[in-house]
Amino acid sequence: MTTPAPTPPPQLQVALGTAADPGSVHAITDTGTALLVTHYPASGAGRLHVLDPRTLAPVRPSLPVGHEPRAVAWHPGRGQAYVMNRGVQSYSVSRCDLATGTVTDIPIGFGLIAIAVDPVADLLYTADWAHKRLHVIELADTTQRRVVPLPSAPNRLAVAQDGTVYAALYVKGLVPADDALAVVRPDGTLTVAPIEPAHLQPGGVAVAHDGMIYVGSLGGGTVHPLFGVHDPDTGQRLGEVRTAAGVRDLAAVPGLSRAWLATDKGVQLVDTTNPYAPRTLDPITTGHAPYAVAVTANGTAHVGDVVDGTVSLIRPDVANLPLDAVATLLTEAGFAPTTGLGAAIRAYQTFHELPVTGRPDAVTAAHLTAPGCGTPDRTTTTGFVLQGGHFRHTNLTYHLGDMTMPYGRDEFTDALKHELIQVSFDVWREVLGENWYGPFEFTRVFDPAEADIVFSVGDDPVFHDTGWFRTVYAVTKWGAAPGWPDAGGQLPVIFNRKINWDAHGYFDVDLHGPDFRHVATHEIGHAFGLNHGKSGNVMHRNASWYRVPKSDDRNGLFAMYGRLPFTDGVGIRVLPEVDHVAYSDCERHLVVHYPEGDGWTWTRLTADVGAPRMARGSSPSPFFAHDGVPSYVYAGDGGHIYQIWYDQGQWWWGDLTQDSGGPPAVRYGPNAYRNGDTQRVVYSATDGRTIRLSQAPGEGWVWQDVSVEGAVAADGTPYGYVDGVTGLDVIVYRDAEEHLRMLWEGPEGWGQMSLTWATQAENPLPLTMMPVWGEHRAGERHRVFGLDHRQDIRMYAVGDDGAWHTRSLTAELGLPECSASAVQRVPGADGAPDGWLLVFADFDGGLWELTGDGDTWQAERVQIDGMPPVGRSVLSVWLGGGRLQITYTAANGNIQLLSRALGDHDWQRTNLTRVSDVV
């Protein structure tokens, strides 16, 4: 999970008070050359600060104003600031002449709550909440006043360029509520438009560059605060959006359909390009209680705080792209802002490896609007692979529909378009190489009903929904292909007919239009099931000229087609004469191959029974549960252990973690085995403990911490087996010191030792991460096998002296270095004791058998005509029906099954992947 980036702090912040008495900033306004800020300390003695809007440094000494100044308005014609003093000692407006530094008092009286200046008419408006009216004061002679009665109490004002005054009205707690926006025109006409829902408490008012009226609200109780856009003629609300918290103040951005809101949770940007559906971004924290906000001509926001006494500067980091367009582009890219625009932007930035700001900054806006593919990013899946989104057959068919290009050059014939599509198919086929088990075959068909992929040049809603903000070249319609990706699902790939398509390098004169070959290669990648990938690759959503798949593209194709299975197959004979080979596929399903009729088939067993998928990269552990019931145990997401077993003619599954009472999550393992009729599962937990799960017949699962004090934690999958003398369990594993560690169960508890330390006199090397294997029967010695750092097969055994000893079978027999191994016991001929069989692969892909009585060993290379080299790191060997079975994953991605009768060296080979026809 990606942690959201923290909200960026303001770029600059100054304190107008002291640490002991920070004071309050209730009002800010911009003069065009200076920032006017009111501030007062605990005493209430107010001052007007004049600051540089770029540096927040004073440009002149502050001026004394009245008690508790709460608002400031600027009159550019007079060069004067008007400061509203709401403290009980004032109830006045201070007129501040910035040129002379003189301050004069204009008495108003009780009820003063807001002011506004009309510089054209040379008027000062004050809101009188106590008497539900406006005072209109002639600034040439402040004794000349008139009153405009209002139906309810005004609390904030704004004046438009034409002299219309807008007043937010409400009386807190009044029933019925009278929240409204009053429109007072210069001719005295009054219009009142109610604002809903009730008790919204509308407050801040501002006039936008296009004349629209913005109103913020505090909300309260069950009413969430809103920001609304209102019709300047009627005052009616056109649209609204929820804000992060109650809006204390707001300011329109000059020249843009945007506003900054000072809310109780930070400063929030709102976009009103679509007035019927405004959009907001996540708030930015500037202090404990932002209360005032102003915006300069270049979009820089300045925020005052009433608790910290600070002024903060936020430089514009949001592109001019309207937020409504941002939301549309994000939705079309697969990042619908269902939980907020900021969250969607962060997800998009994270996915595309952009700076994670949570805001549509210039980089993000440019990325969103760049020409490219109209297929959405698939953000709900891991890596490249869609859930069920890749073909499971390799003989693909395609159909060319209407390929007319109205804006393409005349020489761009249908034959050339077909040639370019074929070339694009070929570059993907070449990624997998000649040795892949099932290279794609592409056949053109002339009936679209017979096609896997249908190409056409045409129109699609995604080509024009984004308007002028983004040009979409083509789209692959995953959701419009019923049955895809199975055979019979016609997948549409549509090229935009309005594009002036070009084919670079195919004409004498290059017109520099979009490259059809590149786009075809990109969309064919989608048809194969690839998501949008990293920049610099064909599958990047905004790539425009790459023609050959790059590293990210190649990895994606290999993940879905060229490197299946994701884990090596492990085998078991589950029913008489029925062999199973199981592995995890790229979608983390447990896939099982098994014979059917004269051939082989396969199934996704986890999907069949509805069991959770496997943890990525883990292999299943097959074994027989009690009563001979075949079973698979595996690790799933969340660190749980799951079991799937066959009983009473069907498969079942269970959550062993839940059933056993919630042991710690698995890190390495699990390994399943039996002790008599008791089922066992051992694994290494994420906290380093060694855990054993057990189920006796007729009883439930229980778990036990079998870690032993002094034993170093496992750094690999533990292997459990039964001591043939005591009948108790033994667990061996490679520990974090790269030693071979053994835990054994005794009558009084568990003991432990390092077999590496116990055999130090024989100079054993540390172990690799490859699986270890062990066994002990009555009358025999313990034998444990692993691979050391020299890639030698190393055996540990108890000698005649009762001490542990170690041997390098590789060195003794002069064998090549080992890359993978598996061990099995085989029955002796004519009543002889059971023998040992060790199968290993060398680094050249060769396969070898080591056979013997456990002390004396013979080596033989497995030779089969046409046998592909071993490619993976895990082998599986088992017995069934008097035959020896070996599985491995070949270098070309096939699962190979080798089989021979015991006592016979005539091997038979079956390519399970090929005969089962599974991708």
UniProtKB/TrEMBL annotation:
Cited Gene3D superfamilies: Collagenase (Catalytic Domain) (3.40.390.10), Fucose-specific lectin (2.120.10.70), YVTN repeat-like/Quinoprotein amine dehydrogenase (2.130.10.10)
Peptidase metallopeptidase domain ranges (all copies): 389-563
A molecular function (GO) term: DNA binding
Keywords: DNA-binding, Hydrolase, Metal-binding, Metalloprotease, Protease, Zinc
Protein name (database record): DNA-binding beta-propeller fold protein YncE
Organism in which the protein naturally occurs: Micromonospora tulbaghiae
